[in-house]
Structures are given as structure tokens and as C-alpha cells.
Amino acid sequence: MYGYVIRRLLLAIPVLIGVSILVFAIIRFIPGDPARAIAGVHASPQYVEQVRREMLLDEGLHVQYFVYMSNLVQGDLGRSALTRRPVTVELMERFPNTLILSAAAMVIAITFGMSAGIVSATKRYSLFDNFSMLAALVGVAAPVFWLGIMFQLLFSVRLGWLPSGGIGTWQHVVLPALTLGLATTALIARITRSSMLDVLRQDYITTARSKGLVERVVIYKHSLKNALIPVVTVMGLQFGTLLGGAVLTETVFSWPGIGRLMVDSILNRDYPVVQGAVLLLAVFFVLINLVVDVIYAYLDPRISYGTKEVD
Amino acid sequence: MKKWLIGFLVLSLLAGFAIVGCEEPVDDPVDEPVDDPVDEPEEVAHPFEDVRVRQALNYAVDKEAIIETIFQGVGSPSSAPIVPAIFGYTEVGPYEYNPERAMELLEEAGFGDGFEIELYHPTGRYPQDDTVTEAVQAMLAEIGVTANLTTYDWGTYLETVLVPPEMAEHDAFMLGWGTVTLDADYGTYALFHSTQWPTAEVWYNNASYYANPEVDDLLAEARVTPDRDIREGLYEQAIEMIWEDAPWLFLHNEGQVNAVRSNVEGLIHHPLENILAWDARIVDEDEQDLIIAIGAEAESLDPLKMTSAPAATVAEHMVENLVYLAPDGSLEPALATSWEPDEDGTSWILELREGVTFHDGEPFNAEAVKYNLDRFLAKGDFEGQDEAAYAFLLEEVEEIEVVDEYTIKLHLEGEFAPIISHLSHSFIGMHSPAALEELEGEEIVEAPVGTGAFKYVSWDRGEQIVMERNDDYWGDVPELDTVTFKFVPEGSSRVVMIETGEAHAIMAVPPTEIERLDGEDDIDIVFEDSVRVIYIGFNLQPQ
Fold first, then answer.
1. Is the ipTM of this complex over 0.85?
2. How far is the CA of B246 from the CAs of A99, A292, B102, B276, B540, in angstroms?
3. Which B-chain residues 187-226 have CB contacts (< 8 A) with chain A?
């Protein structure tokens, strides 16, 4: 097991190097002069030149990449071309916020999504099933932007229960986490339902039932655990998506997260920040996937990691 | 369907009928533009080489309708190449909406059957920029001019249109220009002087390739004329000529809309898209903690790196300039109490305010001014280091001389009349030299130490900047205890904040929300002109 984890971590290194090359190249393929974008409309030609020098834009791509990589292995992501602050500092200020928001959204999604999915599957075609699956469809389809504004109008303006934006207390987390988590809730509900339905048709469930087990035990002990594998896969993927994809929610709720930082940096062609942020997200994505794979083994002992001691 | 959209469609229809109903020839004599050398245009001539065509396009666009329908009445049709708040402004327009007149002019010029142009425009840069361009496209179609639109994101746009004539592929382009010095020099010289055509190396801003020797002379003379009345006269003549020559399709002056809760008094709404709180107070609250929500975060509070209005707004509360540019455009004493040029106008003497200390207790004096200006311009002790993003404002300054403790002399490379206007720019604030000394390596100012009415407290990135009252302020000490600027990028979220009372004031109310907010008793809407004009430039050197 540990051997597997270490092997996976080592395998992650080429993946991350690949990511670093990709993001380095892709952002440079975006048309537009970054020096000009950063210097602003009114800047003088001398200043634009100065920014170009600072960003090494007058050097060849190979030189830029070499400098970037040799700094990177020393843990130095460079400085933001726009604010001139170290990229690591900028990322570390924002990333915890994004992590909090994504985790809260994930908790909401798992709690409500899985409950709805399980109940729907066991009470198939009931009123609850039809209603919650309709709600899930709406949840998947509702644009985050619209949803966020509706929540603000209802809970902040009309009812006055929760702050409309910003960060600080747990109350600040509720609306953005709901907004961000709703689509994932809906997705998890649907996946849980279909996966559960699939498992409930399996022979071993019929066996369990014919042994005279209580339905509750059949559902939670025998079916749910087995039904969870696709659900966990989706959770892992979704969590990664939430981390990088919270831009709209972060914008509507003025949440100082990494998604907003990334979009602003792309618009400003602030190469060092974009590179750092994408790399950070890639590291997390790799880690989340690893965790998901490890959870598989717990859920289904038939899944082995190629180590001989597992029988 | 949205109300403005319906309005827009109705207007387009009306415009169509107006033209259809006016097909018979009109007998009114038409003023021949005097400076037009071409009577019968040659077959190959590009329509924009004929001034009548350029004027025709100005008559063809209904600026009022654009403002009413797209901007819900915020803003005003351009009445000059610069906005009224700027020193040197003369009212010469707007070009009225008159499609018949436009058709006549086109026919006279030999383009009665219309023509086709490539119109480039950015998206997401100026408010509703793509919608405005589409409206213009529809209105031009009414006089037979087919505009093919090409859209660019801002990062790519400038390098597409700020190119030398031989590289330009467009016939017309949309741009905006904010005269951030509030002095006509910056709003005319940079855009209309023939030395300011973009080159392959340098992106100058006369992107229309406009060249009129008379205008050149007037603009050059106005730069070196210290007397403000005489300068104003020179700009008046230049602006009249530019208006007649119509190198642009003059669209509109941007407006800005702020909203303030009615229990807040004394906020200053500045045309430079600033909101200033030093005279403000909250009437019925014990705690004088003012919260203002603005759209974008300050990119920096270091004079070397500041480039945006949000940065200026925040910084001005903590850091002061030598000269203060009042909202009415007048120059008022701040850290300098008086200024005057010497005999030949190539140097300026500024007397400084005595008894002022920085927030860290350091004295403000001529040495401090020299230190700040040298740093800004990478001169003196800062020779060889990076200059400020806005160093061009003071590019005429050759040397800063300390005359005595409270007198400073600016030596200029030549005469340059707008120098004091430029000194008033919010990016040239005076920081404590002791605090600047402490910066190491590539560090820049994050916690400004100035002389202003408020002192820096904290900056939570992506969220807010907090400052508190400076009890030792040399002027009137503010009544507010603290001022907090919150960064709220989404317009409708700012509106929610003022509705719930989470903010006392918000900047840039989205046009669609104005009507709703206006109906609320405890919220006041403030309309203010900005300093930016939006225009469609013609390519006057078509290849």
C-alpha cells in the first residue's frame, strides 16, 4: 500500500513537469503583448520596455523556460509582473480561501447529494424520487452566476439572514458554498441513484434479502459501499473542478480565491501568477486522484494495487 | 425582452423610416468644408480621405439614442474631443443626429451608393463596448455604409490598432481616452499631433494618423505657454479645427454612477473616477466606520507601479500630492503652498507647506520631495533603477533641486506649461523617505506612509484595504474613525451591498440597476462625468 502511494507520487513528477511545460507554452500562445497589458494604456514606451525586460520577454522562449524551471526547482515561482509581489505569497494568501470554499461546497454536495440519491434509489419512481431528480436536473442546469445573485437577493436583501459577500465568519461561507455546491450536489445525487439501482439488482443483494436481513442493513451495509465507487470517482473529479472552477462564485460573492486571481492574471497576461496557480492546482489534482484511488481499495477489497501481500 | 432593446429596435425602425421618407433631394445649401481639397474624388480614393464622408458618419450616428438605450441615460454625447471637466475644453458639438444631412454629404463626396469598411473594436474593455459598436453598425447601415465588425480581447487589441499606417488592416477602430491629467495637453497632443503616430516600435496614440500643420502648431505652442488664459485660447482654436476635420466618429463621454446611503454626508465624487471620504461623516451612527465598495482592486500602492483609478482612489486618502486637483478642475495647494515659473519658463519654484509630518513622525520637507520625485523618475540616487509606470507625466523634468528646507526647484528640459497639472496626478504622492529606505531588493510599497488624512491599517488581498483617521493631520482632521475600501468585482453584488447596508457607498452602479436603486428612499444616486471619451477613429492613411 505504501509502496503504491510512493510509486504514484513519483509518477506525479513527470505529470507535473508536463503541466509546467504546457502552461508555460499555452499562455505564451495567447496573442497580446503582456508588457503592454501590464503597463496599461497610458504607459510610456520606456516603461513598456522596462516591463518587457523584467519579464524576460526580449529573451528567447528557451531562456525564459530555463530561468523559470531553475527557479521553480528552488521553490521560487517568481514575482507577479503586475503587483511585483512574490507569486508564492499571492498564492498562499488566496489558496486557503479557495480550499475552504471548495471543501464547504463538497460537504454540502456529499451530504445532500448522497442522501437524495439513496432515498431516490430505494424509493424508485416515488414522489420524492421524481421531485429530487427534477430538482437535480435544475441544479445541474442553473447557471452559477444567476443562482448566486438569486441567493443574495433572497437571503441578504429580503431576509437579511446572511452577508451578501466577503469573507470572515462562517456566515460568509454559506451562500457561496451553496451556490458552488449545488451543481455538484445534483450530479452526486444522480450518480448515487443510478449506481445504487445498479447494485440493488446484483445477485448478492438478492441473497442478502433472502437471508432475511433487515432492509436497512441491506441498503447501508451491502449496497451503499459497493455503489460508492463511481460516486467517489465523481467526487474526486468534482473537487478538482471546484478548486479551479470557482471563478464565477468567487466573483459574485467577492471571495478572494485563486480562481479570480487566475482569471485576472490571464486577462493581464501576468505569466508568473498564471503559471504558479495552474501548477498549484495540478499538484492538488494529482493528490486528490491519489486519495480517490486509495479509497477504492477500502470500498472494494477486490481492487488491489499490485502488491503481493494483498490476497 | 429588455426595455432598452425594444427602444433600440423602435429607434432603428424610426431611423429607417426617416431615411425612406426623405429621398427627394433637399435644396438647403450645404457648407462646403473649406479645408477639403478634393472636389471630385478619384475612383481609387478611400472614402475616409474625404472630410465630408467623415462628417457624414458623425451625423449618421444617434449618440443620444445610444446613451438612452444602452447606458440608461448615463453619459453624454461628445461635444469636443475632450470632456467638459478638462482645462482647455471648448464646446463645439455634438454632431446632431441627422441622417439626411449624412446622405447629402455622402452623395456630394461621390459615395451616395455607400461603401464597406472594416471596423475593429475591443470587447469587455469599455462599458458595453460591443453593444455600442453593433448599434453604430446598424446606424451606419441606414446610410448605406456596411461596417464589418472584428472583435478582439483587450490584450490583443492595442497591438492590432496601434500600428504604423502600412500595417493597419482596419478602416476604423473603437477606442477610449481618459485625460487623466485634467489638462487638454494630454487629451489632444497625444491623440492629434502628427508626431504621435504609432510606429512599429512605439505605440503612440494618434492611431487615426491625423495630421494638420495648423493644429500641430497650436498644440505645440499651448504646451509651452505658461499663461492659462492664452493656453485656453489656443486649445479652443485647435479643438474647433479637429472637430471640423472629424478624424474620429465622436461618440460619447462616459458617465459614472455612484450610490450613497442617504445618512452619509460629505463624500466627494471626483471626475477622475475617485470617491474621496476625508470630509465625510455618517449622520446617525455612533461608529464612524465608512465602507465603500469599488469594482477593482488596487494593483499597487507604490507610485512606481500604480496604473489604475482604484489605486489612485485608495492611495489619495493616505498619501498626498504637492498640488491637489479639485473636482472642478482647479489646482489647489496641498503639500506645496505656491508655485511659479521663472522668467523663461524652463524651471518652476515650489514653496512647501511647513510643519507637516509623515505618519511615521518623519518631517516633510524639500529633501523628502526630492527623494520621492527622484525615485519616481529614476534620477539622482535612483539613477539606473526602474522608473515609475507614469514617469512620462514628468518626463520634461531634468533635475530636482533643493533650494532650502521648504523650497524646491524643478528644472525642465524646455518650457512645459502643464507641469503643475501633472504634479497633481494621484500617482505622484509623497511617501516618507524613511519608510521607502526600508524596502529591500525588489520590494515595493505595500503599506504606504504618507501625510494624508488617513493612516494605513491593513490590506487583505482580494478583499479590502482598511485605514484609520490621522489625528495629527495638518488640515481638518476627518470625523470618520476608519475608511474601508472593499473590492467587489460584480456590479450587482455591489448593489446588493448598498441595499443591505453592508456598504455606505458603491462605485459604478450598473446601468440596468439605476432605476431600481433610485426608487429606494435611503439610497441616493450620484451622476458624475468621467474624464474618458469613447470614439471610433478613422484610418486617415488607408493603404
1. no
2. 55, 66, 13, 37, 10
3. 201-203
Q: How far is CA B508 from CA A54, B266, B286, in A?
A: 34, 18, 28
- In angstroms, the Cα distances linking B392 to A46, A49, B217, B388 are 9, 13, 22, 8
B149: part of which helix (H) or strand (E)? strand B145-153
Residue B277: name the closest of B508, B489, B493, B485 by CA.
B485
Q: Of B364, B363, B333, B368, nearest to B350 (Cα)? A: B333
What letter represents residue A100's amino acid? I
Sign of CA dihedral B463, B468, B470, B475: positive
Per-residue pLDDT of B156-181, as tens digits, reads 888 888 889 999 999 999 999 988 88
| φ and ψ of B63, to 5 deg | -65, -40
DSSP state of A153: I
A267-277 CB burial, b ≥16 within 10 A, e <16: ebbbbbbbbbb
Max distance between CA atoms of chain A, in angstroms, equals 84
Instruction: Measure B78 CA to nearest chain A CA, in Å.
Output: 21
Q: Reduce the DSSP state of residue B460 to 3 states and report it.
A: strand
Q: Do B261 and B506 meet the contact criterion of CB atoms below 8 Å apart? A: no
Phi (first) and psi of residue B73, to 5 degrees: 85, 0
Backbone angles phi, psi at A31, to 5 degrees: -65, 160
CA atoms within 13 A on the CB side of B532: 16
Q: What is the DSSP string of B204-232?
A: -S-TT----HHHHHHHHHHHT---HHHHH
The number of beta carbons lying within 10 Å of the beta carbon of residue B106 is 26
SS (H, E, C) B380-437: HHHCCCCCCCCHHHHCCEEEEEEEECCEEEEEECCCCCCHHHHHCCCCCCCCCHHHHH
Give the C-alpha separation, A42 to A37, whole Å: 11
The answer to whether B522 faces chain A, any CB pair under 8 Å, is no
CB contacts of A87 in chain B (<8 Å) are: none
Query: What residues of chain A lie within 8 A of the CB of B461, using their CB?
Result: 90, 93-94, 256
Q: Which of B307, B376, B495, B513 to mutate to test the interface with A (most CBs of A within 10 A)?
A: B307
Mean pLDDT in order along chain A per 10 residues (311 residues): 82 87 85 77 78 83 86 86 87 91 92 88 84 84 86 88 86 90 89 87 83 81 81 85 82 89 85 89 87 80 59 41
Residue contact B463–A256, C-beta within 8 A: yes
Which is nearest to B388 in space by CA: B398, B374, B402? B374
Q: What share of chain B is helix, strand, coil (3-state, %, to 5)?
A: 30, 25, 45
